[in-house]
Each structure stands twice: as structure tokens, then as C-alpha cells.
Amino acid sequence: MAEKGTISVSTDDLFPIIKKWLYSEHDIFLRELLSNAVDAITKHHHLIITGESNHKDIKHNITVTTDSEKKTITIKDTGLGMTAEEVKKYINQIALSSAEDFVKKFKDAGQDAQVIGHFGLGFYSSFMVSTKVEIRTLSFQEGAEAVYWECDGSTSFSMDSCDKTDVGTEITLYLDKDSENFADEYSTRQTMERYWQYCPFDLKLNDNQINTEKAIWAENPSQVKEKQYKEFYTKMFPTGEEPLFWIHLNFDLPLNLRGILYFPKLTNDPNGNKGRIKLFSNQVFVTDETQDIVPPFLEMLRGVIDWPDMPLNVSRSSLQGNPKLKKIAARITKKIADKLNGLRKNNFDDYVGFWKDINPVVKIGAIQDREFYDRVKDSIIFKSANSGEWTNLSDYLERAKENHENKIYYASDEHAQASYIEMFKKQNKEVLILNSSIDPHLIQFLEYGGGGMKFQRIDSNLEDATTNADKEDSKEEQKENKQIIKLFKKSIGDKKVKIEVKELGSADIPAVVILPEHQRRLHEMQAMNLTERTFVDEYDLIINSASPLAAKLTSLDAAKKTTEVDLICKHVHDLALIGQNNFDPTKMGEFINRSNKIISILAS
Ligand code: ADP
Ligand code: MG
After folding, report:
1. Are residue 134 and residue 35 in the same domain, yes or no?
2. Count of structural domains within the chain
3. For strand 61-67 and strand 202-205, is the pairing parallel, antiparallel, or unpaired?
4. Residue 535 shares a structural domain with residue 472
């Protein structure tokens, strides 16, 4: 059956271009040939199952052999093989026409790297490293004759029969000078170990097993044990830290995607959380330069995604903007939301434990992705300052319904705002702790994004903090209050500070500083753009008439103890500012001097 032929049409420049193109990504040919071998075995496997092939005793494997003397590399598989007709059709015509197509596009695009990335050249990529390529193949079909094919990288090929006796295909590359390193076992092994560690079929290089790892993502999630997930994680990401939890992706039509994504423990290193999602295609590693496959807020996830429909020679640039990615990202996001809800419902204590690590991610996700928010809103939890328990907003609002509808009282600093928390507790009003740096943004989103929720920091409105705000003061009291205000005004001397006397819920606090919610937020927003910290100088100073200090002040004044009165007023004011986290540290010297003075007075 000896036969010669010419690869048709304008292909004179085919091979030089192939060579040049692939120069930068040398090992693509190996990926292409090995994946053809995997395809061929997969097909053969199916044919055996359906009884169309009667080679049911075959032990499927792929062997790669390097010969450093002859400068060859051979890839041999136990796949379905090809008949002479099939070689003509699939190698001479189809594979070739796609190679021609490539050349055309390549020329049109003026060597634009984008086009290269989009293009699967398959079998013909072998010519980027070889001067000659030989195929020996025997089809699984009964009575098939083994075929020999060779092509020297010019436009002509020849075909003949040969004496191959085992079913499958064997491809030998005669490596050119620039690519002789692939005849060297060591360097080829490095490539193979990088990409083929999880090969689904037995894969050897010379006598060494290459696929030593098990692709647990390809298994049925119900069959994989917790221990396996953890081991897999530490093998892939040897950080020493265990993952928090994970999801096993198992999408079928129309997306056909598998994978495992882990929530890692967050670290403080800003680069430490940069995600490591390794992209595979049918258990062949493709790249870890993944973008867009998860939404930005999930970039800290680690794991593998196996997307069989992805072109093998995918590059970062070709992956970007792929319309399917949006769908994949959406599916993954939904799956993550389901997982969070499931954990919260079934294992709330664990969930609270994870929350410390995952809360920024979930909150950012909620802000950036409305659909995600709608799914996870009940899994966004906050600690109640009253009970110490964790709660979501809908439960909180349900409890608060009678007292303050749709209004959420919160503290941003449990310690600094402890006196306010006390006042709220005394009135049985529940306060949530919102102390993460993302919380102000979340508040903004929740207030404007719907639901009509209103957030109010507990130190921003006195009416909510005091018991007797509406109580009419007696004439006597009014007179005394006026006097107290006068004393404070004299001491502080700042016209912007508004001073009032009110009865606060607790007698232990002499005074508080109140920054109205909107004003404080405005200040916080402006402060975000400044490197230096600034302080609000317009605020209310509320003197607590329930505190014994207030009464003491007027009697000290009556006794003409002006120094003491001045010291007390200034000090009470400063302490209230500190309580509001609005104390300017440049005034610290003055504060310390005064403290010393007060101590001396106490001691004398
Ligand atoms: P693709 O794999 O995208 O179809 P290729 O250029 O890699 O394109 O291969 C072209 C065709 O040649 C394959 O579709 C297959 O029919 C055939 N082929 C290539 N390698 C093998 C192999 N090892 N065993 C059987 N058939 C093969
Ligand atoms: Mg292929």
C-alpha cells in the first residue's frame, strides 16, 4: 500500500511558521500529542465497553521514550489506532487543514499573540521540534492493517504498511537541533511532571511513572473522604495550614466542569492570599494564571478546576474574555453561596469559627455581586454586644421589631464604646458589633441597596441612649444645668463644641461626645483619602446629670475652687473624646500634665 502524497496548497511556509510560533512555548507539542493519546485511549475504552472492540484484556497505558543517541522522542498509546483511511482523513486532511487555517490566520493577524492562543494546532505542533515525524498505528478494528506514515517537515508525506502488532498508535519525533533537550530524559520529565501528574491513564517516561497523583476532583464527591481532601490540599499548596472548608464542583451540562475549591486560612501577607487556582483540562494541567474563572472577590480561593472543553493550548490572554468564563464564575459563586448557607444551617459553631477568616470575602462579595448577596444575606453574621451570640440581621430586626423597626444599632469598637453599650443594654436595646474595616462599606450597601435598613452607631444619637430624654427638668435643675454648661464653656473655650446636660442611662459616665451619624460618616469618607488622621471638631458634649460629678462641680464652683473646676471640666471633656476615639494625640502632652496635676491634688 506504499503511497506518497503532497500536502496540498500554499503550505510552503507552514513549518517555518509553526516552528517560529511555538518557539516560546516549546512543550506544547508534548501536551498535544499526549492529549491525543488520552483521547484515543478514552475512545478505545468506550468501544471496549460497548463491545465494538474486542480488546478487553488490554492494559491501557501511555509510554514516552526518549533516546538521547538517536535524538528522538516516542509517544506510544493503547488507544483505538487508525486505519490507512483514517490516517488520510484525520492526519493528511483534517489536521492539516487546521494547520493551514492557522497559517492564514497567523498571517492576517500579523503575528498577534492572541490568535496563537486561540488556535489548536494539535498533531502538527510536533513539527515545531522535529525534522521528521513518523506514525505507526494499528486500528482496533478486526483485520486492520498496521500503517506507517512519515513526513519530513516539508510538504510531502509518505505512507506504507508496517508490522506493528499491538493496537494503538506510536509517534516518533526526530528532534531538530534546537529541541534536542526533549531527547533528554531529565528535561522531558520536568515538563511531564508539571502537566501530567494527574494523567487519567498509566503514564511512563522510559521506566518512570509520571502520574503519581490521584485526581480526586474527578471522582464522585460522595466517594471522597475528608482526609483525602485535606491531603490533596496540602500536597498542592504546602503551606502547612489546613484549609477552612471546600466545595467539590461537579457540573454537567451545559457546563461540564469539575474541581475542588478550598477556602484557605487568610494570612496577613497581602500577597499570601493571592489565589492559586490551577486549571486542568481532562486532568492535564494547563495553567495557574487563571483570571475571570472566579469573580475577583473569590480570588483567594485555592484549588483545581478541570474544564475539558477548554482548548489545550490556552494561554492567559486567550482565556480572558472567554464568554463561557462568566457562566462558570456565576455557577461557582452560586455553589459557594450554597456552601456557606449549608455550613451556617447545619454547623453553626463551625461557621462562626470560619467567619473570622471569611467575613471580608463574603462581605465584599455581597457588595460587588447583588445575586450573591441575595443568596448569602442570612449567612452574614454579627456578634451581639448584649448576648455575645452571633446573629444575622433578619433575626436581629425580628427581635427589635417592637422597639426600633428596621434600625440597627451598632458599635464599631466594643471597648472604646463600652460606655454607650452599657447605656443601650440598660434599656434592653440590642447592639451589634460591626468592627471590620469592610463594615462601613457594607452598611452603605445595605442602606442604599434595599430593604430600607438604617444603621446607627450607638454614640451618634443621644435620644436612643438615654432613658429620660423627654423628661421635663424642674426649674431648679434647669438652673443648675445652665451653670454646669457655663463652667464647661469657660474651661473648654471652643465655640464649635455644643454642650448640653442630660441624664444618661448610667451614673458611672460623667460625659459623652456625640458625633451625628451622617457627620461622622462624612468625616470617615474624607479621612480615607488622607494619609494623616484628622479629628472632628464639631460635636456635642453631653454632661451626664445622673453622674455625681455634675453636682459636685456646682458646689466646687460655689466654694470658689476655680482651679479644680477647670481641671475637672477639661478632663471630663478629654475622656469623653477618648471614648469616642476622637482625641487628637497632639494634645496628649497637655492631657498628661493635667493628669499629673490631678494626682498631686489627690495626694496632698
Ligand atoms: P484534534 O485532537 O483536535 O482532533 P489533532 O491534530 O490533535 O486534532 O489530531 C487530529 C486527529 O488525528 C484526531 O482527531 C484523531 O482522529 C487523530 N489522531 C491523532 N493522534 C491520534 C492517536 N494517538 N490515536 C488515534 N488517533 C489519533
Ligand atoms: Mg489533539
Report:
1. yes
2. 4
3. parallel
4. yes
Q: What is the pTM of this model?
A: 0.77
Are 277 and 294 spatial neighbours (Cβ–Cβ below 8 Å)? yes
Are residue 186 and residue 68 in the same domain, yes or no? Answer: yes
CATH of the domain at 481: 1.20.120.790
- Is there an atom of ligand 1 within 6 Å of 32 CB? yes
* Ligand 1 binding pocket mutation candidate from 31, 58, 90 (most atoms within 8 A of CB): 90
Lowest mean pLDDT among 185-194, 281-290, 435-444: 281-290
Q: Give the highest mean pLDDT range of 313-317, 322-326, 339-343, 517-521.
A: 339-343
Whether 253 and 277 share a structural domain: yes
Matching residue, cell 494541567: 285
CA of 388 to the centre of ligand 2 (A): 60
Contacts of 458 (CB under 8 A, 6+ apart): 409, 410, 411, 417, 420, 421, 423, 424, 431, 464, 465
Strand partners for 477 = none
Q: Is 248 within the bounds of a domain?
A: yes
Atom 20 (ligand 1) nearest CA? 36
Ligand nearest to the CA of 81: 1
CB-ligand 1 contact for 170 (6 Å cutoff): no
Torsion from C-alpha of 397, 401, 405, 411, nearest 10 degrees:
-50
Contact 233, 263 (CB under 8 A): no
Look at residue 329 and tell me if it is in a domain: yes
More confident call, 488 vs 505: 488
- Nearest-CA residue for ligand 1 atom 19 is 36
CATH of the domain at 396: 3.40.50.11260
Confidence of residue 240 (pLDDT cuts 50, 70, 90): confident
The pLDDT tens digits of the residues spanning 81-123 come to 999 999 988 888 766 666 666 666 656 655 444 444 445 567 8
Q: Inform me whether the pLDDT recorded for 314 exceeds 70.
A: no
Ligand nearest to the CA of 95: 1
Kindly state the cell numbers that stand for 370: 447583588
Segment 326-343, tens digit of pLDDT: 888 899 999 999 999 999
Q: Do 474 and 449 share a domain, yes or no?
A: no
Q: Which domain holds residue 596?
A: 468-515+529-603
Q: Which of the listed residues 47, 94, 123, 147 should we mutate to test ligand 1's pocket, taking the one with most ligand atoms within 8 A of CB?
A: 123
**What confidence score (pLDDT) does residue 58 get?**
94
